[in-house]
Amino acid sequence: MVAFLDQLGIRLSLYVGYMKKRIYLDYAATAPVRPEVLKAMKPYFADRFGNASSIHSFGQQAQKATDEARRKIAEILNCKPLEIIFSSSGTESDNLAIQGLAKNYPNGHIVTTAIEHKAVLETCKALEKSGIKVTYIKPNREGIVSVDQIVKAIAPKTFLVSVMYANNEIGTIQPIREMGLAIKKLNHDRKQPVYFHTDAVQAGTLLSLDTQILHTDMLTLSGHKLGGPKGAGILYVRNGVPLQPIMFGGGQERGLRPSTLNVAGIVGLATALAVSQNHKQAETKRLAELQKYLIKELKKFPEIKINGSLTNRLTNNVNVSVDKKTSDELVIGLDQQGIAVSAVSACSAGSMSPSYVLQAMGSTQTVASSSLRITLGYLTKKPDIIRLVQALKKLLPN
């Protein structure tokens, strides 16, 4: 019995040691909660647990916290606090933006891209069944959609353009500001305005979110991509956009999103967004150096091809395809060496389908089936990248 316990202790010690060495490089899927966020959220799980809709002191305490969070987020987005709608996720916010606007235009037209997040693509496909027409614009081989493509696709019945700020698989950054300006110019001569929505979920830590500079009418963010909690998202809705609710119940969030407010999640999201944006410049530079080093090392592998633009992309994203390897082989093989990466969007993982993003860019199904997404974050250090490169050497034949 003693010998058995000794062996068990050794195994547990080895397991704990192994877990300590694990490296996380899947920040596009989710980020670990920042210590500042956890600290800010903690009181709202126990001491300040009130329902923000209640009029007694417990409720008013919770309401004050959500009001402060709304103000903090509005300051970052350069908008009015009442233009911030809290939701449960980026997916819900995308659905509210698209479906909520579509209710006003039953026979209307939407322009979007073929490389959007599934939350946008699947919502548009569902609306097509009800009579809405949708144009899906394909990007160039670098994963970029041009302003001209957007403008040319706009028709008399177009009521919405929805373009992702930064792609969740390949990290390419779209010219959102230029698109917004072009749409604003078009609207001067139109009776039916075109509203502009962007899914900025991947952009929240590294890019500007100033809605006045971007010229967006609606913008989506999600807490857990920022080092905040899961289950908390926002939709910025410019005053005057005729959005209708897609859920019904209470009158929370200007009647657009009925549900008891997730006070702890909202506080955490606001804190994560503030910390991310405060560190944005320094972090962008730091991650760019790590990205440059990683790309340089990956180019030494003859079987590896970098996907997407090398200039117009997030500094925390590297997406590759590996000849004669499948995505699941790569992900599992690296995970067995203690390194977490992904193949496609976390929302598509498990489907075993080739990357629809890479296919839309013109890649073959074989190339799209061998992709690997490596995304860095606030805890990533150079030794982590070195470990990744060493692990890839073990996985690949040359």
Explain what you see.
The protein has 398 residues and is an alpha/beta fold. About 3% of the residues have low confidence. The protein contains 14 helices and twelve strands. The protein is globular, with a radius of gyration of 22 Å. It starts with a helix and ends with a helix. It folds into two domains: 128 residues, Alpha-Beta Complex (Aspartate Aminotransferase, domain 1), CATH 3.90.1150; 242 residues, Type I PLP-dependent aspartate aminotransferase-like (Major domain) (Aspartate Aminotransferase, domain 2), CATH 3.40.640. The strands form three sheets. A seven-stranded mixed sheet has the order 2-8-7-6-5-3-4, sandwiched between helices. A three-stranded antiparallel sheet has the order 9-10-12. Strand 3, helix 5 and strand 4 form a beta-alpha-beta unit. Helix content is 40%, strand content 13%.
Number of helices: 14
CATH superfamily of the largest domain: Type I PLP-dependent aspartate aminotransferase-like (Major domain)
Structural class: alpha/beta
* Overall pLDDT score: 92
Rg from alpha-carbon coordinates: 22 Å
Distance between the termini: 47 Å
Low-confidence spans: 10-19
CATH class of the largest domain: Alpha Beta
**What global shape is seen?**
globular
> How many structural domains are formed by the residues?
2
Adjacency order of strands in the biggest sheet: 2-8-7-6-5-3-4
Named at the architecture level, the CATH assignment of the largest domain is 3-Layer(aba) Sandwich
